[in-house]
């Protein structure tokens, strides 16, 4: 009987570079499909009624839980409203939450971000803004808030937005690429997008000339919320101007909570914690002014309810006093709720496209002039 010598290799005997490169290739090949087209998982079998009812029950339980927590928190805040502590030492849970100015909150966050603690002075400072989504009709709520903004102090530590520019003349492709477009072109670019040559993660937004509106609309199933339209400000006559605006702008999009349609949450980034206080304050003011100016006309009462500043990974959160940065208050006539049977007011949410573009281009010009003065 012959015996064969078997040698077993452990991962420790393999070179780390080979392991990392092989797994990197494996990960890339598994994430990018053919033609780099985004594909969604499809169920191989039909979902039975039992599993569907379980999912519906779980979602309904989540909605009820969120609703209960929110109502309890609102009731607690109403009870504590007006309770001010009379001494320096007190239980926070027994009094109305304190509102901090931006300078006070930033200083407290910097104390926790020192090198001997969290060592995160270069981390981004975030503000969670709570928006009021209630309208005059009791059962109607604003589904989502969307807008674009050019900050006076650019977040240069964030990734640059990659823009696909569908220009009127394909001969101008090189000019758009030089100006910073991820890719540009005319009918050829539209064809490449329709064939799935661009992976979903390769670009952030799309701008197009108005002459391509009919063909671009056919790409709705591929572009989804990135489809350029006149309403979102990504379809117009001056594509170079649109590309410059949306490559330098910040996209604002609120998220909802299941079971609590009355509010929406908006996460904004002011800058790095190590930045000068004036730069952080200018960005915060620009954010809040943009939110107030672009709000829906159907909103009843104050649109911006509160703002909570934090800087991960520090666990401290402070409620901001934002009344000094934006003019809060109900700007439209009559704030009485309308019952289900009464007539609903028309939605005047469609903002003038030209005014929005002019406002954002003015912000870019101011920013460029400021940079020239600094130089």
TrEMBL record:
The keyword Ribosomal protein applies. It comes from Schistosoma margrebowiei. Keywords: Ribonucleoprotein, Ribosomal protein. This is 39S ribosomal protein L1, mitochondrial. InterPro entries: Ribosomal_uL1-like, Ribosomal_uL1_3-a/b-sand. Belongs to the universal ribosomal protein uL1 family. GO terms for cellular component: ribonucleoprotein complex; ribosome. Transmembrane segments: none annotated. PANTHER family: 54S RIBOSOMAL PROTEIN L1, MITOCHONDRIAL, LARGE RIBOSOMAL SUBUNIT PROTEIN UL1M.
